[in-house]
Each structure stands twice: as structure tokens, then as C-alpha cells.
Amino acid sequence: MRHEIRDFADDDSLARAAADYVADVARRCVDERGRFGFAVSGGRTPWAMVAALSEREMPWTRTTIYQVDERVVSDTDPARNLTRLAESLAGVPAVVEPMDVDNEDLDAAAERYAQLLPARLDLVHLGLGADGHTASLVPDDPVLDVSDRLVALTGVYEGHRRMTLTYPALAAAAQLLWLIAGADKRHALAGLLAGDTASPAGRVVSSRSLIMAERSAL
Fold it and tell me: Which of 56, 84, 201, 217 could be cross-linked to 134 through a Cys-Cys bond (beta carbons 3.0 to 4.6 Å apart)?
């Protein structure tokens, strides 16, 4: 897969540029089709991007935000991505579709979430772990081989099970946006750019992929 790459001097300029990019995509999608569907991963860098986005001129009432992944924890647990997402949005009038990780039947909840997704997400934000994971497509987990579902569950990873979009869901997106910061990501990013399929991120396929990276990660 080919990637467009843009580099930035620091985390702040990365977050602000990413917010500008998302706002531009949103306005174009609303002009063309009347709606914007945006899926967001967890992590420190995306929360800064979403916070900056909340200050942009955005067609919020025609925007639906989906989760790329979520830890299976209670809604009061600080590890919950949804909590940080809501805080970063700061009350803007977007519709947010949360992953139902509180449900006792997680497989059924994953299936229902898949049914909520549009046929083609306009934009999917992805991060990159130092171990090469993206979304919650984590090393050595059976979720990597899921090809018949758009949403699935992982085993325990860093203390928690996760609900995540799968490779087919990512492949169906109109555009991927990777936000990558930190020198600890350098090896994983090199693998992603080389198309190293031993890394979970290296197995992602998309027709359009933009990497926005803080320079220490390159």
C-alpha cells in the first residue's frame, strides 16, 4: 500500500494540522453527500487532534463519529476511550456512536456495532503502537485473521480485551489518516512504510492513506 507522508516539528503542530485536514474532508463530504462519517482511535495524539477540531468550523450536525476501538471496561474507568473522546469534543453537536462494551454479550454487541457503520466510512483515524499494532489489531491475536466481520473482539492485551474495527472495515474506508508521534514509533513506522506484514499495521489495505507524523517518529 502506498502512503502520502507529511511531517511536523512537534505534537502540537501535528494535532492542529490533523484537525485542519479532518475539517476540510468533513466539509467536502457534506457538500457532496450531506453527511460525514469519521471513525476515531484512542490515544494521546488523537485527543489533542479532536480537541483542536472542536474549535474548527465543522458541519457538526451532519457529522457522525464512530469508535475504531474500545477497551472492555466500565463506563467509569479512566481507560475508556469514549470518556476522553467526549471530553475532547467539548460539547459540540456531533452524533457519537459508542461501542457497547458494557454489554454482557460482547459478540452480539460487536455485530450490532457493525450494522451501525455506513457502507463506506469517509475517514478513519489510526494510530500506531511501538509493537506495530493499530486500532486494536494487536500482535499474535486471532482478531488479525477475522475476514468475515467488520467489528470483532480481541483477547486480553495490556490488561484488557478490546472491541475493534477489523481489516475489512478499514479496507472499506474512503480515506485513512494515521497520526504518529514519538521516537518509540520509529521502528514500527519504518515497518509500516515497508509494507511489513509481520506487523499488524503492515497488513492494513486502503486505496488512500495519509500519514501525518511528528519528526522524531521518522
Answer: 201
Please give the angle made by the CA atoms of 213, 18 and 176, to the nearest 5 degrees.
Answer: 75
pLDDT at 166: 98
- Entry pTM: 0.96
CATH of the domain at 210: 3.40.50.1360
Q: Which of 73, 98, 214, 212 is nearest to 156 (CA)?
A: 73
- What is the average per-residue pLDDT within 76-82? 91
Query: Maximum distance among all alpha carbons in the chain?
Result: 45
Which position has the grid cell 471530553?
Answer: 87
Q: How many independent structural domains does the chain possess? A: 1
In this prediction, residues 144-162 reach a mean pLDDT of 97
- Would strands 162-165 and 151-153 be described as parallel, antiparallel, or unpaired? antiparallel
Helix (H) or strand (E) holding 112: helix 106-116
Q: Which domain holds residue 48?
A: 4-217
